[in-house]
Specification:
Elements lengths: L2 E10 L2 H13 L7 E5 L13 E7 L2 H9 L1 H13 E9 L3
Antiparallel strand pairs: 1-3, 1-4, 2-3
């Protein structure tokens, strides 16, 4: 069954770090089967805290999502995301 990784950017703290993250995260895609479904487009918060941006990416299954997230390339990129902004990252299994 498909799995989704949802990034919710709450607040940017260092744009330079996020720029580095963007470059490294793109390179971390590698051979992983990733389908971007939403990528920092317009958003409207209907409930809860405000968000600056949302990314929604689809993977074939939870194992594939974890393999990408845990990969050395993404873990290196992640360090810049952590320095550049406050995010929530959620792994959700889809229906299948």
């Amino acid at each position: 069954m498909p799995a989704y990784v949802i990034f919710i950017k709450n607040k940017t703290t260092d744009q330079d770090e996020l720029n580095t993250y963007s470059q490294k995260a793109a390179a971390a895609r590698g051979d992983h089967q990733i389908t971007p479904l939403a990528f920092y487009g317009g958003l409207e918060v209907l409930e809860g805290e405000p968000a600056e941006g949302v990314v929604l990416i689809q993977f074939p299954d939870k194992a594939a999502a974890k393999a990408w997230y845990d990969s050395p390339a993404y873990q290196e990129a992640k360090q810049h995301r952590l320095k550049g902004a406050d995010y929530r990252v959620i792994l959700a299994e889809g229906l299948g």
